[in-house]
Automatic annotation (TrEMBL):
Gene Ontology cellular-component terms listed: cytosol
Keyword terms, alphabetized: ATP-binding, Kinase, Lactose metabolism, Nucleotide-binding, Transferase
Recorded family membership: Belongs to the carbohydrate kinase pfkB family.
Record's keyword annotation contains Isomerase: no
Protein name: Tagatose-6-phosphate kinase
Originating gene: fruB
Pathway in which this enzyme or protein is active: Carbohydrate metabolism; D-tagatose 6-phosphate degradation; D-glyceraldehyde 3-phosphate and glycerone phosphate from D-tagatose 6-phosphate: step 1/2
Catalytically driven reaction(s): D-tagatofuranose 6-phosphate + ATP = D-tagatofuranose 1,6-bisphosphate + ADP + H(+); beta-D-fructose 1-phosphate + ATP = beta-D-fructose 1,6-bisphosphate + ADP + H(+)
Molecular-function GO term, any one: 1-phosphofructokinase activity
Keyword Transmembrane helix: no
Biological source species: Paenibacillus albidus
Length: 303
């Protein structure tokens, strides 16, 4: 079974304006409220791929109810801890350029945090736990360490998709997969990356620090898969980008879902790229049909 953990879910409020006038009145051309937060996105795409999974995390207030209701209607199994404060709303502003404004997240009380840790006590060695996204500040910077400790104690594999020190610290615990995009990779090492060779150098360092597999996504340029077995590249399929929010999460869902079903790393890589691109070419997250349509066209080549 795959569990996704979203410590900081969101309603993604996607707003389109023709031309943004800063300091003036803007009228929306179109708007859309989607359930968001990285683990929730992973669960929604796993559900499209018909891979059994359960979404965990914290949800609160009217925004939390909106997300819970949406997941219920999509038939996604979930077991969120109810928190007193409201789940955040993240703004995704689409004008000529895409601008994102993400909230810091609700206050999580100590008892609520303990309740989530407690839910993971039921993990089994065959499970994979996907830990995704930012940590609400009130939880403390070491909360992922505490979740990882439970995964290790139960013998379950974990995937972690977060940034900075929280990601760095997790590497010694041997995550099954990490998926920084190329900007996040550069940020991790405090460098500027200008070539594919440099991505490979820094990706390999993450293997040395403990990651079992490293996927570096590069938006429209596709992705690199770096592991002990070698380095592979896949070009992104061609298409018209509609909304790339959630492309990275979809890539993780495609990879982990396919790996859990087949144990084949390169098939998983191919499905990851197809899922990320299918989401980038959609208003909402990718559908199963769209992923399937793109999957056969993704060519994986050894670097
Ligand atoms: N503009 C795009 N065109 C085609 N595919 C894309 C595009 N943006 C994202 N993707 C697909 O989604 C994957 C993840 O996207 P990326 O933007 O790198 O991740 P993140 O959302 O984590 O920043 C890419 O590797 C690619 O397969
Ligand atoms: O927890 P964070 O880092 O603030 O990210 C949350 C945001 O990331 C998303 O999950 C999208 O992530 P990706 O585009 O990286 O896949 C949004 O749904 C959400 O608003």
């Amino acid at each position: 079974m795959i569990y996704t953990v979203t410590l900081n879910p969101s309603i993604d409020y996607i707003v389109e304006v023709d031309q943004l006038i800063l300091g003036g009145l803007n009228r929306m051309e179109r708007d859309l409220k989607l359930p968001g937060g990285k683990g929730i996105n992973v669960s929604r795409v796993l559900n499209q791929l018909e891979v059994e999974n359960k979404a965990l995390g914290f949800l609160g207030g009217f925004t939390g109810r909106y997300i819970e209701e949406w997941l219920h209607q999509e038939g996604i199994s979930s077991d969120f801890v109810a928190v007193a404060d409201d789940t955040r709303i993240n703004i995704k502003l689409k004008a000529k350029e895409e601008t994102e404004i993400n909230g810091t997240g609700p206050a999580i009380r100590a008892a609520e945090a303990e309740a989530l840790l407690h839910k993971l006590d039921a993990l089994q060695a065959s499970d994979i736990v996907v830990l995704s996204g930012s940590v609400p500040p009130s939880l403390g910077a070491d909360f992922y360490d505490r979740l990882i400790a439970v995964c290790k104690r139960r013998g379950a594999e974990f995937v972690i998709d977060t940034t900075g020190q929280a990601l760095r610290q997790a590497l010694v615990s041997r995550p099954l997969l990490i998926k920084p995009n190329h900007h996040e990779l550069a940020e991790l090492f405090g460098v500027t990356i200008t070539s594919r060779d440099e991505i490979i150098v820094y990706g390999r360092r993450l293997l040395e620090e403990g990651a079992q597999h490293v996927l570096v996504s590069m938006a429209g340029e596709g992705a690199l898969f770096i592991s002990e077995q070698g380095v592979y590249h896949a070009k992104a399929p061609a298409g018209i980008v509609k909304n790339s929010v959630g492309a990275g999460d979809s890539m993780i869902a495609g990879f982990v879902g396919t790996f859990s079903l087949t144990g084949d790393l390169l098939e998983a890589f191919r499905a990851g790229v197809a899922s990320g691109s299918a989401t980038a070419f959609s208003d909402d997250l990718a559908s199963r049909e769209h992923i399937e349509r793109l999957r056969s066209g993704v060519v994986v080549s050894k670097v």
